[in-house]
Amino acid sequence: MFAGANHLVFGYAKELRKNMTDAEKFLWQFLKGGIRGLKFRRQHPLGLYVADFYCHKIKLVIELDGSIHNLETIKEYDEARQKDLESEGFHFVRFSNNQVMKEIENVLKIIEEQIENLLSNLIYNETKSPF
Question: Do residues 100 and 63 touch, judged by C-beta distance below 8 A?
Fold first, then answer.
């Protein structure tokens, strides 16, 4: 569930939970009760990284990007981090803080669509016979 995260990453995640952005706090109000019976965690350690929001059952990572993510070095880090986690089977959906604050209905719709797709794939893979 934590993809081998060490105690330093857990400490960092704890600090991030204490200092969530306004957009993270706002989205958390919609995710903390779960969606379609799936539970979400906030500031969840995954290996060397911390996901803004994470659903373990379908390995869905939801990332929120503030203006700092427009810097080229941060973009490159985000892309490398995402590729690294995707290679381990994690799925990503990414929104800007502005999208969350101004278009929450659309953000939630996209999240629900992603959940539907991942659940469909999960059910298909569980029922697929090797014969």
Answer: no
Taking Cα atoms as reference points, which of 78, 112, 97 lies closest to residue 27? 97
Residue 55 burial (CB count, 10 A): 24
Q: Which pTM value belongs to this model?
A: 0.82
The answer to whether 12 and 90 are in contact (CB under 8 A) is no
In whole angstroms, what is the distance from residue 90 CA to residue 15 CA?
23
Domains of the chain: 7-127 (3.40.960.10)
Identify the H or E element spanning 46: strand 41-46
Tokens of 99: 């999208």
- The 10s digit of each residue's pLDDT in 4-28 is 555 677 776 777 778 899 999 999 9
Q: Measure the CA–CA gap between 106 and 100, rounded to whole angstroms.
A: 9
